Amino acid sequence: MATLARYRKRQAQANAARGVRWMEVEVSGNGPAPESGGTSGLTVALKSGRRVEVARRFDARTLAQLLAVLERA
């Protein structure tokens, strides 16, 4: 356990130096995912009230492009 504690401490220090922070997330609903015709597989709700919903099997390349555009805004 000492090795794990040392690793976690080093990671925390490195993350703090790079400005990396943890964000609180909330998991809504605890039931099984809808079989079909349901909502997205992943939703990101921003403090501004905007939401980004990504359906199951969403193309990773398109998502990366979308995130790049959003980061520039």
Order of helices and strands: HEEH
Count of runs of 4 or more consecutive helical residues:
2
Strand content: 5-15%
Low-pLDDT parts are none
**Alpha-beta classification:** alpha+beta
Which descriptor suits the 3D outline? extended
Helicity, as a percent range: 40-55%
Describe the model.
With 73 residues, this protein is of the alpha+beta class. It has a domain at 42-73. It is 41% helix and 11% strand. The chain contains two helices and two strands, in the order αββα. It has a two-stranded antiparallel ribbon with strand order 1-2. A hairpin with a 5-residue loop joins strand 1 (42-45) and strand 2 (51-54). The model has no long low-confidence stretch (mean pLDDT 77).
Write the layout of secondary structure elements.
Blueprint: H1 2-18, E1 42-45, E2 51-54, H2 60-72
Antiparallel strand pairs: 1-2
Summarize the structure.
The chain has 73 residues and is α+β, with helices and mostly antiparallel strands. The protein has helices at 2-18, 60-72; strands at 42-45, 51-54. The longest helix has 17 residues, at 2-18.
